[in-house]
């Protein structure tokens, strides 16, 4: 018996993501997170923002966050024209 599975090809597009972690990262982590912008927020969180080329790359970033030992707060895709709510005054 043969089962048909939907192809995962072309179901994932490169996009921008925000990864929020609890705690502040030092500047020394900038090279480890390559193309991501590191923003230290007033509430003590760190926001990692930048392009993620595919789902495998996203999982790789999440592994790095796990290896830091800091709690993961959220992972959010950021669409074109979206504004982080913390920027709205």
Segments where pLDDT lies below 50 for 5+ residues?
85-89
Largest sheet: 4 strands, antiparallel
Give the overall shape, derived from the CA principal axes. globular
- Gyration radius (Cα, Å) is 15 Å
Average pLDDT level: 82
Helix-strand topology string: EEEHE
**What is the count of helical runs?**
1
Overall helicity: 10-25%
Q: Please tally the β strands and state the result.
A: 4
Describe, in short, the structure shown.
Helix content is 16%, strand content 30%. It is α+β, with helices and mostly antiparallel strands and 89 residues long. It is globular.
Can you put this structure into words, describing what you see?
This protein is of the alpha+beta class. The chain has one helix and four strands, in the order βββαβ. It has one helix at 55-68; strands at residues 15-22, 37-40, 45-52, 72-78. It has a four-stranded antiparallel sheet with strand order 2-3-1-4, covered by helices on one side.
């Amino acid at each position: 018996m043969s089962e048909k599975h939907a192809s995962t090809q072309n179901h994932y597009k490169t996009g921008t993501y925000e990864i929020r972690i609890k705690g502040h990262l030092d500047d020394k982590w900038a090279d480890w997170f390559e193309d991501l912008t590191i923003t230290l927020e007033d509430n003590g969180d760190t926001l990692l923002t930048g392009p993620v080329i595919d789902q495998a790359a996203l999982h790789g970033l999440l592994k790095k966050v796990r290896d830091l030992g800091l709690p993961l707060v959220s992972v959010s895709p950021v669409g074109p024209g979206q504004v982080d709510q913390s920027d709205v005054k």
